[in-house]
Amino acid sequence: MSPEGPLPDQAGRDRSTRPYLADALAGAEFSMSSAYISRNRRRPTLTAVQRLTQSDGTLLGFLGADFDLRELPLTRDLYQQPDQWMQLKGDPAIRRGLFNQHRVDSPLDTRIDEVLDLLTELVVAHGVFHGKLHFSSSRATLWLRDDPFRYRLLDYEDLTDPGICLAYPQRSYPEEAVLSTEQVAAVFRTFRELRFMDDTIYLRSGSLNIFNGMVGLNFSCDGSHYMSGQEFLAKRLDFWLGSGEEHERPQSPGKH
Length: 256
Description:
Layout: H1 22-25, E1 30-32, E2 36-37, E3 44-53, E4 59-68, E5 86-88, H2 92-96, H3 107-110, H4 112-125, E6 128-134, E7 139-144, E8 147-154, H5 156-159, H6 181-196, E9 203-209, E10 214-219, E11 224-228, H7 229-234, H8 237-241
Helix pairs in contact: 4-6
């Protein structure tokens, strides 16, 4: 049944293997499922199930009620991303071939100091609150406080042209930012060190968000790391060449 009436096409379906019936079939008088994707509407759904019995305990069946999550009120606080360090492994095919590859200078690498100074200026004085720099493909994606729902894509020509700042209004650095302007500059300088630290294990892309203070890193092995800017700045370079990556370079000093 639906609020509009019977659903004849749904009659006779075998629902015994659906996740919302597991507790009921195990004997629970009443159960509420975890959220799952419904088969019909393909949307997150909850199902409440009441076991129906006669006075002598004979099972008659089950009464189920489906609730579309879109129609339920928000009953808890907005999810907050934890700020502890997270390490995620990437494509196994890339990891297996890691030691057969070597870093090749991109156009951005040849002018990396200018690019990082420009990106720092955009964050500190022109309203960029989240930026991701793709070293290998010489591009950046930026999000602005004035227009947070759309990102800007800057190519190599944009990133090496200081006049690009004129395309973005001047904005005071926000008091709500977790990182100071000095820490922003330090994060980008550290990106440079990670980019050139090794010909095999090196930074492919790095991101920074000043409001949650998170730094994102993606390395040549396709491993990704997310951590607070403070924790990122506290780590020495040999951490990334040592235990910081999931690969061990053979006969490389400092490995443990």
